[in-house]
Amino acid sequence: MHLWTITLIVALGVVGLFSLVLGSVHFFFPNLLDFANAIPKDGPPIRPFRLGPLRYATQRSDVHGIAWVMNHAASYVLVSIGLFDLAAFWWLGTTAGRLLTLWIALWWLIRAASQFYLGKRRGDWWIAAGFVWLGIVQALAGIG
User: Fold this and answer.
1) Other CB atoms closer than 10 Å to residue 112's CB: what's the count?
2) Do residues 103 and 87 make contact, with C-beta atoms less than 8 angstroms apart?
3) d(CA 102, CA 122)
4) Nearest of 15, 13, 14 to residue 135 by alpha carbon
5) What is the CA radius of gyration of the chain?
6) Rounded to an integer, what distance in angstroms lies between the CA atom of residue 63 and that of residue 75?
7) How far is C-alpha 95 from the chain's CA centre?
8) Contact present, 73 and 89 (Cβ < 8 Å)
9) What would the mean pLDDT of 28-48 be, rounded to a whole number?
10) What is the pTM of this model?
11) pLDDT exceeds cutoff 80 at 1
């Protein structure tokens, strides 16, 4: 086995472990980030959801429900990426593995860019840089 392949497997192992931990934590973000107090359940009505001719009378509890749904969806993807990366030994160099890891690289880069919805403080730049690093590791596995 070449040194480059070993390096990629180790780097993907680090990405995989990070992704598993982040995915596990995401299950609880609405509690950890105190959504219940950040978005009070009592207060004036919020705008209805509209999409073309569709209209849904959105309630504050719906916003909390969406937060849970979206965090669980993110958790599922992150845990899946983690497991995939930890199994790099078996897929590295295969066509299917390359295609999937390039898709994951793009996913990490989109996540990096999305960090700036939270702000542009120094920590946001560091977090975005970390997600860019994850994307680069995935991309190198796809093209290497």
Assistant:
1) 18
2) no
3) 28
4) 15
5) 19
6) 18
7) 24
8) no
9) 91
10) 0.90
11) no
pLDDT in tens, 5-35: 999 999 999 999 999 999 999 999 999 999 9
pLDDT of residue 78: 98
Distances (CA, A) of 135 to 112, 116, 128, 130: 9, 17, 11, 9
Block residue for tokens 């990405």: 15
Lookup: tokens for 38: 């950040």
- Tens digits of per-residue pLDDT, 54-96? 999 999 989 999 999 999 999 999 999 999 999 999 999 999 9
Q: What is the 3-state secondary structure (H, E, C) of the chain?
A: CCHHHHHHHHHHHHHHHHHHHHHHHHCCHHHHCCHHHHCCCCCCCCCCEEECCEEECCCHHHHHHHHHHHHHHHHHHHHHHHHHHHCHHHHCCCHHHHHHHHHHHHHHHHHHHHHHHCCCCHHHHHHHHHHHHHHHHHHHHHHC
As beta bridge partners, residue 56 has: 49
Residue 41, pLDDT > 90, answer no
Q: At what angle do helices 3-26 and 60-86 cross, to 10 degrees?
A: 160
Tokens in use for 78?
């992150």
